[in-house]
Structures are given as structure tokens and as C-alpha cells.
């Protein structure tokens, strides 16, 4: 998914180069094409909102995972942190569904705008796939279950307890790194979207 986000950023970079060619700039400013460009500019706001929502969600989720890791290291009951994490995943899920509603477009003849529309649909599809990363909360539910079992069986050997805690910490650190990578990928995509949007606006105002 991270690789897909980076490749999408490269696609938008290529589209921006097409936008900036003299021939396409003249074509995009023609009356019919201009209308299509303006409509696509409006739809691009949906992508920016989606990326912004995803970035904020990943930041919150990383912080939540970090707090959970610290609780496990201290040997505390981490059920509160687990519940907080699950609430964040549900919140992010609802935000994504709310923002991604209006994304359809009519038949497009302009080559550059058609490329933008296709890239937009791919972007929404990929971001929706990224959303399924939130299913990782199931792993944290399992962690919660393991914690409760450890607390309920005080006779378990110290070595066994330490090994289990280390395993849980490694899983959480891996999850935190995954969120960080996805956050970086979405941030890169966001910047590329802004750049292509600015190029289109500059073309229309030239």
C-alpha cells in the first residue's frame, strides 16, 4: 500500500508535466475544456479532504499504539488503551465514508482531464484499501485477551511472561511503523495533488 501511494504520487507528477506543456495549456483554456477542468478541480477537493482525514487518523492511531506499548511495558492493564484505539479506528472509518461520497464524474473527452479523473478513481480505491488497515485492531483485541490471561494466571513463569510481553511489544512497534509509513505515503500524495491543482489553476488564470 505504501508503494502504491508513492507510485500514485509519481502519476500525478507526470500528469502535472502534461498540464504544463504549451499545447495542453492552450487546449485546457478553451471554453469546453475549461469547464471540464473546473469540474475536476472541484472533485479534486474530495481527494484533498480524504488525504487530510487519513493523515490525521494515522497520527492519532500511532499515538494510541504508543500509549498501549508503554502500558504493556509497565505491566499495567492496557484495556483502556485498547478501547481507545478501537474507538479511533471506528472514527477514522466513519470519516472516510463521509468524505468519499461524491466522486462520480461524467464522460470526459479531454485527455488531461480524463487522466486526472482516472487517477482520482484509483486514488479513492487505494485509500479505501488503506482503510482496511484499521482491521489491525483485531490484533490489539488479541493483545488485550493475552493481557487478561496473563493477569489471571499469576503462577505462570517469569520467563514466559517476559517472552509474551516482548512479543506483544514487537507487534505493536510493527503496527506503529506501518501507520508511520502510510502517513508518509498519504502526505506525499497530498503534496502531489496540491501541485497538480496549482498547475491547473495557473493554466486557467494565464
TrEMBL record:
Pfam families: BPS1 (PF03087)
GO biological process: root development; shoot system development
Key words, A-Z: Coiled coil
Domain of life: Eukaryota
Coiled coil (residue ranges): 158-185
Native species: Leersia perrieri
Annotated PANTHER family: OS06G0725500 PROTEIN (PTHR33070), OS08G0553750 PROTEIN (PTHR33070:SF106)
InterPro entries xref list: BPS1_pln (IPR004320)
Protein name: Uncharacterized protein
Amino acid at each position: 500500500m505504501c508503494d502504491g501511494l508513492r507510485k500514485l504520487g509519481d502519476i500525478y507528477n507526470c500528469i502535472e508535466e502534461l498540464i504544463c506543456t504549451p499545447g495542453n495549456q492552450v487546449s485546457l483554456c478553451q471554453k469546453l475544456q475549461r469547464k471540464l477542468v473546473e469540474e475536476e478541480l472541484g472533485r479534486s477537493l474530495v481527494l484533498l479532504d480524504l488525504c487530510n482525514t487519513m493523515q490525521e487518523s494515522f497520527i492519532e492511531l500511532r499515538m494510541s499504539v504508543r500509549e498501549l506499548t508503554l502500558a504493556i511495558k509497565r505491566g499495567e492493564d492496557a484495556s483502556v488503551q485498547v478501547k481507545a484505539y478501537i474507538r479511533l479506528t471506528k472514527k477514522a472509518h466513519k470519516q472516510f465514508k463521509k468524505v468519499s461520497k461524491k466522486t462520480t464524474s461524467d464522460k470526459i473527452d479531454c485527455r488531461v482531464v480524463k487522466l486526472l479523473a482516472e487517477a482520482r478513481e484509483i486514488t479513492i480505491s487505494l485509500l479505501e484499501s488503506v482503510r482496511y488497515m484499521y482491521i489491525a485492531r483485531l490484533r490489539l483485541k488479541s493483545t488485550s485477551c493475552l493481557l487478561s490471561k496473563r493477569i489471571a494466571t499469576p503462577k505462570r513463569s517469569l520467563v514466559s511472561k517476559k517472552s509474551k510481553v516482548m512479543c506483544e511489544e514487537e507487534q505493536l512497534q510493527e503496527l506503529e511503523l506501518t501507520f508511520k509509513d502510510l502517513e508518509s505515503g498519504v502526505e506525499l500524495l497530498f503534496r502531489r495533488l496540491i501541485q497538480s491543482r496549482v498547475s491547473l489553476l495557473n493554466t486557467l488564470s494565464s
